[in-house]
Write a structure and sequence with these properties.
Layout (H helix, E strand, L loop, with lengths): L7 E3 L2 H22 L13 H20 L3 E3 L2 E2 L3 H4 L3 H4 L12 H37 L1
Parallel strand pairs: 1-2
Antiparallel strand pairs: 2-3
Helix pairs in contact: 1-2
């Protein structure tokens, strides 16, 4: 994490629990507006709503898990177990190898390739503009 940015300070784990429950409640209210609950409470044919509910809860949990490194609870780093107790390990990011550190040489190479691509686009535009006239002149001769 960038040492120049301060972490978000919370006073106690209850603050994070409060935020988590408020987010879940708000998401549930939005879900109720978008996909109203079934009329019969024991309707087993409605598989769409539970699936969406599960996806939304997973997204909320993943978002908070990603935010944990930027949180400090009473001056200490936030523990992943604070989010879900027993299944906190399941909520953690499993694969962090998807991201590479910033490489300035690679970024410069990318900029160079984009400049070359732009030059090639310009050259193609010039050829499209000049080629028909040159072909017509060559045909007349």
């Amino acid at each position: 994490m960038d040492p120049h940015h301060r972490k978000i300070d919370l006073q106690s784990p209850a603050d994070l629990t409060y935020l988590h429950s408020n987010i879940k409640t708000s998401a549930q209210q939005k879900l109720d507006l978008a996909i109203p609950p079934s009329v019969t409470p024991t309707d087993s044919t409605d598989t769409f709503r539970p699936h969406v509910q599960q996806l939304v809860q997973g997204y909320i949990t993943q978002t908070l898990a990603l935010a944990l490194p930027s949180l400090a609870i009473n001056g200490l780093d936030a523990e992943p177990s604070i989010l879900g107790g027993a299944d906190a390990k399941a909520n953690e990011i499993e694969d962090e190898s998807n991201y590479e550190p910033y490489d300035p040489r690679l970024a410069e190479k990318l900029r160079t390739l984009y400049r070359q691509l732009e030059w090639e686009h310009t050259r193609v535009a010039e050829l499209r503009r000049e080629a028909p006239g040159a072909a017509a002149r060559a045909f007349e001769e």
